[in-house]
Amino acid sequence: MQPINIADYETLAQEKLDPAIWNYYQGGSGDEVTLRANRTAFERYALRPRVLVDVSHCDLSTTVAGTPVTMPILVAPTAGHVLAHPDGELATVRAACAAGTVMIASTVASTSLEDIAAAATGPAWFQLYIRSMDRAKELVLRAEAAGYRAIVLTVDTPRLGNREKDMRYNARRRLFPAANFDEDDFTFSYTGDSLTWEVIGWLRSLTTLPIFLKGILTGEDALLAVEHGVEGIIVSNHGGRQLDESIATLEALPEVVEAVAGRCEVYMDGGIRRGTDILKALALGARAVLVGRPILWGLAVNGEEGARHVLEILRTELELAMALSGRTTLASIDQSVLKRVG
Ligand SMILES: Cc1cc2nc3c(=O)[nH]c(=O)nc-3n(C[C@H](O)[C@H](O)[C@H](O)COP(=O)(O)O)c2cc1C
Predict the structure, then answer these.
(1) Which is the closest atom of ligand 1 to the Cα of 270?
(2) CB within 8 A of 38, min separation 6: which ones?
């Protein structure tokens, strides 16, 4: 089968991957209610297309924390890309750069942050988990020295979610090298459970890079994030892998956008599989979206080319959705394109 959409890549990736890895990638936490909700939330909105608009040219370009990108679609941080393909994160970063967008490299990448940066032909960002302050400080300084353009602190992981597929397959520890750490030091990393909002000031004292918080789901926390002076928020529930039964990201997005009131950038991730999903997220106020699993599926199926193709499919679909809804610029995509139907 020649894959023509993201679902095709999912099917092909499942055929290709060892079940332990497949289940590690696919799994959510608990009963996977949130994992499913991330997808079904999109169906609660229908599109209201406008007609007789000159849509011969649609402009998808924007900036993210000042970095120009050719489309509002970024590569979410995900761990262990060598599980998908031997070229691992090197393939992913090349694909993202070739597509004119940004990869956010995970703390628990299977390639060192320096090697990823060296393979990048454009800007990349670094995702941070803080298990120990010393380790985190070292990672931030290394990331800055390697040329990363932003730090994305993941805040929804004081502990790891209850990922039962991982328990059944014991996938994580057995399968994946975390290249940013010495083998001896290696403990599977997530953000520690004693961190509080003071960590932002500490991070700010270490780096001049823009700071994003990933994993905000409420207006209350969005407000605190703004008060602590972050450059951006990523509305995320970790792809349904942390607190099961937490709110779908598309549902959480409006209250975050409202609380922020333009004072920092807001992105979202979770369940983005179609260009129309992106259109809906932008209409509810996201400046950009991130994609997680689809990139892993692309990598698994065809390495760098597969990851690149996944990005190009999403770009093409978003462009078509904009043309068919009569919105030719990202700025023209507002709530008037949506009708709540569920
Ligand atoms: C296999 C896998 C590994 C992940 N690893 C990380 C990680 O290391 N750091 C992080 O902040 N988020 C991680 N995430 C969450 C993603 O960044 C993102 O929030 C999520 O995948 C988006 O949902 P989607 O997969 O439906 O696109 C991971 C997700 C998956 C599926």
Answers:
(1) 23
(2) 237, 239, 240, 248, 249, 250, 270, 271
Cα(258)–Cα(87) distance, integer angstroms: 41
- Residue bearing the bigger pLDDT, 84 or 188: 84
Whole-number Å distance, alpha carbon 237 to ligand 1 midpoint, is 9
Cα dihedral 230, 232, 236, 238, rounded to 10, equals -70
Q: What is the rounded CA–CA span in Å between residue 52 and residue 268?
A: 31
Amino acid, single-letter form, for residue 97: C
pLDDT, position 183 = 59
From the list 186, 227, 221, 224, the residue with the least C-alpha distance to 235 is: 221
| Locus of tokens 């320096």 | 114
> DSSP strand E in 49-200: where?
62-64, 67-69, 73-75, 103-105, 124-128, 151-154
Q: What is the mean pLDDT of residues 224-235?
A: 98
Cβ pair 76, 160 in contact under 8 A:
no
Nearest to 271 by CA among 9, 23, 34, 18: 34
Q: Check if 277 has its Cβ closer than 6 Å to any atom of ligand 1.
A: no
DSSP class of residue 111 equals S
Decide whether any atom of ligand 1 lies within 6 Å of the 74 Cβ.
Answer: no
Please give the Cα distance from 18 to 37 (Å, whole number): 26
Q: Does residue 214's CB lie within 6 angstroms of at least one atom of ligand 1?
A: yes
Q: How is residue 163 written in tokens?
A: 């990922």
Give the pLDDT score at 308.
Answer: 98
Residue 240 Cβ contacting ligand 1 at under 6 Å: no
Distance of CA 21 to the CA centre of its chain: 19
Distance between CA atoms of 99 and 309, rounded to whole angstroms?
9
Report the pLDDT value the prediction gives residue 187, as an integer from 0 to 100.
54
Backbone angles phi, psi at 153, to 5 degrees: -90, 120
Substitution site in 102, 238, 290 for ligand 1 pocket (most atoms within 8 Å of beta carbon): 238
Confidence category of residue 169, pLDDT binned at 50, 70, 90: confident
Q: Give the residue numbers annotated as catalytic, written as ranges.
A: 238
User: What is the CB neighbour count within 10 angstroms for residue 240?
Assistant: 28
